Amino acid sequence: MLILRPDTVTAITIEVTRLPELQPVTQSDVSKIAEAARRCEILGRVASLAQQVLEEQGFVQVRGLSPETSARIFPAFATLLGNIYIDPDVGAAIIPAHVRPGELLMGNHLRRLPLHTDYSMMEEPPRLTMSCCLHPDALEEFGRLSIANIESACFGLYDDPEMIRLRTVPLPFAAQNARELANVIDRPILSQKANGRLLVRYHRSRIEQGFRVRKVRPSLEQLAAMKCFERLASECVQWLRVAAGDITVIDNHRTVHGRERCSVEVNADGTTTGRQMLFLFAY
Q: What range defines the domain where residue 132 resides?
């Protein structure tokens, strides 16, 4: 956790005025935002510290800014940590999420979200999953983030039979709307990147969709690999409370993350107010 002191918050609030107000952030906006971010000295220092903590433990939280300031610096901060990814199905870098009953997007559901990696159906998923909290859950014990550092859990155990299973048993990963075999990739849960670091890939819904597209059932070996991984991940989970204004950065290659169930406040007009976040992904 990086907790920003009041003088740091004041300095960043001043630097915010140098950043362009671009919403939504499209591909043509990214270079302008990155150029402006490089001129923000304090923000650059915070990003450098965040990078060090991220490398050490696989995630980092930055706390102390108001939700308005955090939202304003969010894409600029991302450019100081990596290269922003823009989902072609979305067309913009920043993806808003508001927990409400009846929503279709998984991130907007009230139910608990199991441990997973984002974009697991891509050949090379984005390295960073970033979030900015605009409005936390009304109940402190609800809406918590769960993170498991798989790279750390596997350290020194590479020749263990269960680790070998996770590196060798392929599973089919498909996008939620995938309907054709060409949209499915077969990969093991654990693999090694070109730089020698671990790449974790896991999302039970994406795997289920892969089997559905293939019109086959998982083998006993595949089921054993999934159960083995979920047991490994659950044994090393850390819980993070998310406060208003928090920016959280998760290494999507080395860890898996999830979220506890959420609550919503019911307004007199029948609408609801729940946890509100901004999400962004980067390489």
A: 2-150+234-282
Same domain, 218 and 253: no
**Close Cβ partners of 89 (under 8 Å, ≥ 6 residues apart):** none
| Distance between CA atoms of residues 64 and 248, nearest Å | 12
| Number of structural domains in the chain | 2
Domain boundary among 209, 232, 255: 232
CA distance 282 to 44: 17
Closest CA to 112 of 121, 130, 102, 99: 99
Are both 39 and 143 inside the same structural domain? Answer: yes
DSSP class of residue 207?
Answer: H
Residues 142 and 269 in one domain: yes
Cα 18 off chain centre by = 27
> Is the pLDDT score of 180 beyond 90?
no
What digits encode the pLDDT tens for the residues 241-265? Answer: 999 999 999 999 999 999 999 999 9
176 in the same domain as 83: no
Left (φ > 0), alpha (ψ -120 to 50) or beta: where does 250 sit? beta
- CATH code of residue 118: 3.60.130.10
DSSP 121: T
Most confidently modeled range among 13-22, 181-190, 204-213: 204-213
Query: Quick one: 75 and 103 in the same domain?
Result: yes
Q: What span, in angstroms and rounded, lies between the C-alpha atoms of 169 and 186?
A: 9
- Measured between alpha carbons, how far is 52 from 199 in angstroms, rounded to an integer? 19
The predicted-structure confidence for 186-203, as pLDDT tens digits, reads as follows 999 999 998 989 999 999
The answer to whether residues 58 and 131 belong to one domain is: yes
Q: Is beta strand 59-63 parallel, antiparallel or unpaired with respect to 2-3?
A: parallel
The answer on 225 and 259 residing in a single domain is: no
